Amino acid sequence: MRRTAIVLAGLLLACGVLAWSPRPASAAAQQVMMENYAYGPAALTVRAGDTVTWMQHDEAPHDVVTTSAPVAFRSPKLSQGQSWSYTFTQPGTYSYYCSVHPDMRATVTVLAAPATAAPAPPPKPAPAAPVPPKKTTAPSVPGTPSVPPSGSAPATNSAAPPEPAAPSSSEPSVVQQAAPATAPSLDPMLLVAGVVTAVAVLCLLLLGSRPSP
Question: Which of 36, 78, 150, 213 is the S-S candidate for 56 at Cβ 3.0 to 4.6 Å?
Answer without folding.
Answer: 78
